[in-house]
Amino acid sequence: MNTFNVPTRDQVNETNQGIFDNLKGQLGFVPNLYATYAHSDTALENYLSFSGAKTSLSAKEKEVVNLAVSQVNNCNYCLSAHTAIGKMNGFTEDQILELRGGTASFDEKLNSLAALAKDITENRGRASEHAVTNFLNAGYNKGNLIDTIVQVGEKTISNYVHNLTQAPIDFPVAQPLEAATV
After folding, report:
1. Orientation of helix 93-100 relative to helix 108-122, angle to 10°
2. ∠ CA 133-181-140 to the nearest 5 degrees?
């Protein structure tokens, strides 16, 4: 599959140019996946609004979902980005590998979240009663459940954008889970 080009600032509309400038100011660069969204005049702004929207999930909990979902969807770009972000949120390399597999032996509540995110993704929203019950028994509520589903959807969008476009990974590349667990 051919990769899509990653548009530069001068190849995108004025709105996206402003977003590129903001991203460069905040992150020091424009991630290639975000730049790829800018092929559309509106998708980058819409996605960033969606991904930055209020949620009952903490930043750390969002990373749990992001890692589990990106593993199921086999998105190496998002796995690489969220491995780096996961470390910034206090997870160790070993914990990140566990989360990618849909478990968290180091934290019962996060374990239920990782398992649910994996189950939702694998079963296209039809999570098992067991996964939902464990999630609720771990201290989450129905509002957290809906926010988890929304987070799965948000991350799936980026997974699909990358899996189709194959934008070059501009984070330290995450190793395949199979290689890490051997």
Report:
1. 40
2. 20
Residue for token pair 């996206």: 16
CB atoms within 10 A of CB 43: 16
Pick from 156, 155, 143, 147: nearest CA to 55 = 147
pTM of the entire structure? 0.95
| H-type alpha helices, 28-91 | 32-37, 43-51, 59-72, 76-88
- Condensed to tens digits (0 to 9), the pLDDT of residues 83-116 reads 999 999 999 999 999 999 999 999 999 999 999 9
Low-confidence ranges of the chain (pLDDT < 70): 1-3, 179-182
d(CA 117, CA 128): 11
- Alpha-carbon radius of gyration of the chain: 17
Helices (H), 73-128: 76-88, 93-100, 108-122
In 98-167, beta strands by DSSP E: none
